[in-house]
Amino acid sequence: MLDRTQTPLEALIRRRRPGYSLEAPFYLSPEIFAADMEAIFHRHWIFVGVEPDVAEPGDAMVVDIGTTSVVIVRDDDMSVTAFHNVCRHRGARLVHDYKTSVGNLVCRYHAWTYGLDGKLLYAEHMGPEFDAGCHGLKPVHVRSLEGLLFVCLSDDPPADFDVMAAQMAPYLAPHELRNTKVAFEMDIVEPGNWKLTMENNRECYHCAGNHPELTVPLFAEGFGFAPEQLDEAGRAQAERYACLVTDNHGAWEASGFPSRCIEHLDDMVTGFRTERLPLDGDAESHTLDTKSACRKLLGRFNDPKSGALHFWTQPNSWHHFMADHAVTFSVLPLDAEHSLLRTKWLVHKDAVEGVDYTVENLKAVWEATNDQDSTLVGYCHSGARSPAYEPGPYSPHTEVLVDRFCNWYVGRMADYVGIGR
Question: Where does the Rieske domain start and stop, copy by copy (predicted)?
Answer without folding.
Answer: 47-151
